[in-house]
Amino acid sequence: MQILFHWRFICLPLLLLMAACTPPKKATVASTIIRQPEPVEKFAIDSTPANSSLLSGLLAKLPGEFSGIIADPEKYRLQIIYTQIDRDSVNKPIFRHHYYHATDQYTYPASTVKLPAAVLALEKLNKLGKDGLGLNTPMFTEALRPGEKPVFGDLSSKSGKPSIGHYIKKILLVSDNDANNRLYEFLGQQPFNDRLHSLCFEQAQITHRLSIALNDQENRTTNPVWFMGTNGETLYRQPFAFSALQYANRNDKIGRAYMKSGGPGQPDIKVEEPLDFSIKNRWPVKYAHLLTQWIMFPESQPEDNRLVLSASDYTFLWKYMSMLPGESDFPQYKADDYWPAYVKFLLAGSEKGDWFNPDVRIFNKVGNAYGHLIDAAYIVDFEKNIEFMLSAVIYCNSDEVLNDDQYDYDNLGFPFLKALGEVIYQHELSRERPRVPDLSRFKINYRE
Predict the structure, then answer these.
(1) Phi, psi (deg, nearest 5) at residue 253
(2) DSSP classification of residue 60
(3) Does residue 403 come out as left (phi exceeding 0), alpha (psi in the -120 to 50 range) or beta?
(4) Closest Cα partner for 11 from 54, 42, 46?
(5) What is the value of pTM for the model shown?
(6) Is the pLDDT assigned to residue 39 strictly greater than 60?
(7) Fewest beta carbons less than 10 Å away: which of 151, 154, 179, 214?
């Protein structure tokens, strides 16, 4: 699959200005690293843009049962970003961003933090520049805490060994938590956050692993890892690391009560106060949307502030962001547990059916935790020749009790995200475009 990039952009009026950011000098890597031009339109990365009249009008077309959500976005912590994409005479993308309630109101990012982990793990491999060190090089994780087991094998991979590439596959195919934690350890908490900040994601705070109850000091400490060459030799060894990064103070609290463990053999205890998220991960949906744009359209990232990724890195990400679980051989997933729409909330709503249109591909990363549903997606219909980006977060917790596993995902969150995707998709079908886009770069053979 050939990837085309163009060096000249037509100057357009900037709708919104990206916050200024001066990144550190990039490491020099192989000549395959993609060099791209300046973006045609910058993004409202750390501001609160006005609601788009177009998007507000489209939201009015949602079924009546969702009118309360649109009328009270604060209650549902609703944020929506819709990006129209047109093409110029040489197929260069032109972005027009539309926002609805894109505020600084805190929303728990859940598994959306796994996409930056995957991207920066690929970048770190490039920056290390070690011969033989790549996506499929076996990576072993050593134990650090009492009772913890080292990771020397992975039976779901073709080689039977863990690797950066295999962890990324599991993250993008089914949002695997353990795979994310292994990349978190490879990156190290402080370098992970420092790099996000240098990319202008200044409010990002990735402070903990997922699905593991660890305290702040334990999350700041990351395990030793090492990579093995084809002859059993050590290609690269990384010792344990401790993050001394000082994060900006926050006051992020959600709900009216929460459940906490009562101890071994004891029932959970209800605490009648909001749950404090002030030291939990922060990755706003605006950041998830912009990172998705940069992955799908590397040429839209500012040339002096660019990810250090190769053409093959991008195609690898595209493949597994859009692949369905049942299309994967390594790892292999059972259809009963991982249906086609398992991590495709927009358009599909995570329906447990045979949802699948071979002409439509969704390149995305979702999140689902603490009553929050999030999806940041680039959606393409090859038969209809349409493309657009859509990201949204909604808080589904009518009783305002956290950690009780009584969330309104199935009767509110998933139906809303599905309906939202359908409304935008139908608008894209009807709107006129100056040119038919050439989408061939995103057509992927999922059996190779």
Answers:
(1) -125, 145
(2) T
(3) left
(4) 42
(5) 0.91
(6) no
(7) 214
